[in-house]
Amino acid sequence: MAERTPRRPRRRLIAAAALATGVLTGVAACSPGPSGGSATSAKTSGPVATDPAKAGKVTLTVWDQNTDPGANASTEALNKAFMAKYPNVTIKRVSRSFADLKTTLKLALSSANPPDVVQANQGYPDMGAFVKAQLLQPVDRYAKAYGWDTAFPSQLLDLNRFSPDGKTWETGNLYGVSQTGEIIGVYYNKAKLKSLGLPPPSTLGGFETALAKAKASGLQPLSYGDADKSPGIHVFGVVQALAAGKPEVRKLVFDEGDAKWTDSGTLKAATTLRRWADKGYLGSGFNGKSKDQAVASFAQGKSPFLVEGTWQSAVLAPKMKENVGFTALSPATGQPPLTQGGEGLAWSVTSKSKHPDVAAAYIDFLVNKNGMKVAASHGNLPALPPADYKPTPGSVDADILTGWKAVSEKDGLLPYLDYTTPTFYDTLTAAVQELTAGHLTPKAFTSRLQSDYSSFQNSR
C-alpha cells in the first residue's frame, strides 16, 4: 500500500449559528503545476480593478447549471441588472443541467476559448480535477478585495479550497464562492397526508411507516426518477446520514480515520433503499424517469412524498401553493435532524479568462447582499440569509428556512457523497441504479464503493 499524504483534521462543515441566523462574523505551500511552472500565474497577483465600467468593451462568457426555475430566474435577473449597471459588459450565458455540466465543462475549460466564469462542483471529481489541470485560478485576492473572506464563514470558504496540485481538499487556495445554501429533505403533500391520517414525518422510521401506509392505500408512495443519476445519490445520502450517523459519513467523505464504506451504517442504508425498491415505494421504471418527471408527478398529486433538494421549492410552490411542506428527518425521536447539504456550486474564475477582474466583479454581484436578496426573492435559499429574509408563514420556503436552521444549528449538515474521490460520482451513481434495480446486493454495493475509496487512498 502506498503511503498516504497526511491530511489536517477537518473543522465543522458549516458555521451553523452564523448561517442559520444570517449573522456573520482558514494554506499549503505551492507546488509546481504539470508544466513545471508556478501554479499561480501573473493574472492571480497584483492590484484588483473593481470597476467593470473602466474595463472597456467586454464579453463575459459564463457557464452555469442553474436550470431549475428559481435558480434560472434569479440568474437571469442578476445578469440583466449587471449589464444595465455596466453597459460595456455583455454576458454570454451558457446554461447546462448538472449532469450535462459534469460531462462538458472540462472540455470547455480545456478549449482554445474557455469561458470566463463557471460553476464548479466542490470536491475531488470536479474542482480538484480542474485545479490539478490549472483550469481555474485562485481568487484569494478577490476575496480580500470584495470582503468574501470575512462575509463567508471559513467553513464555507474551505469547501472551495484546494492545494495547488488538486490533491488536498479544504486547504490551500480559494477557487470560488457560492451564492446558495441547500439541504436535501422530504417534500410532502399536506392533503395526501391528511387523507392518510399521517403527520409530516420527522424520523427515518416514521417516514418508512408512512411509505408503507401510502402503498397499502393504493398510492404511489414516493415520486422518484433516477435517469439523471443525482436523485439516487441524494436519496441514498439522506438514508445513509440517518442510518450511519454524522461521524461515520464525515470520516468517509473527508478521508479521516479508519471508516469503510462496508461498515454497518452504510450497509444498513443500502439495505433500506433496496427494501424500498423491492416493496414498490420507488414505483416502476424509475431508472428511466428523469428528475423533472418525478418532481412534476409529485406536484400533480400522484404521490405524497418527494425526496429532493431545497432548490425545488421554486418549482413546487407555484403549482402546489400552501399544499406542499418540507422537512428534514432525524435518526430517532428527540434527536436533531441530519441530512446532506451545504452550499451550491462555487462560482469560479477560469485560468485563461481574458477579463479576470470583470469576472470577479460579476461573481461579487451574484454573492453580495443584493445578490442574496434576489436569489431569495426567486425561491432560492441564500448561502448567507439576509437578516430581513422572512418567508411567508406556512409556506414551503418558511419550512425550508426552519429546516435549514434546525440542521445547521445542531451541526447536522453532512457533505455530499460524490465529493469523496475523483471517480466517486460515477461509481456511486451507477451503483445506486444497480442496487435499486436489483442487480447489486447491498453488500456488493458497499464493496464497490469501498473499492473506489481504497484505490483513491492507495494513490495518495
Automatic annotation (TrEMBL):
<dbReference type="InterPro" id="IPR006059">
    <property type="entry name" value="SBP"/>
</dbReference>
<protein>
    <submittedName>
        <fullName>Extracellular solute-binding protein</fullName>
    </submittedName>
</protein>
<keyword id="KW-0732">Signal</keyword>
<dbReference type="InterPro" id="IPR006311">
    <property type="entry name" value="TAT_signal"/>
</dbReference>
<keyword id="KW-0564">Palmitate</keyword>
<keyword id="KW-1003">Cell membrane</keyword>
<keyword id="KW-0449">Lipoprotein</keyword>
<feature type="signal peptide">
    <location>
        <begin position="1"/>
        <end position="28"/>
    </location>
</feature>
<keyword id="KW-0472">Membrane</keyword>
<dbReference type="InterPro" id="IPR050490">
    <property type="entry name" value="Bact_solute-bd_prot1"/>
</dbReference>
<dbReference type="Pfam" id="PF01547">
    <property type="entry name" value="SBP_bac_1"/>
</dbReference>
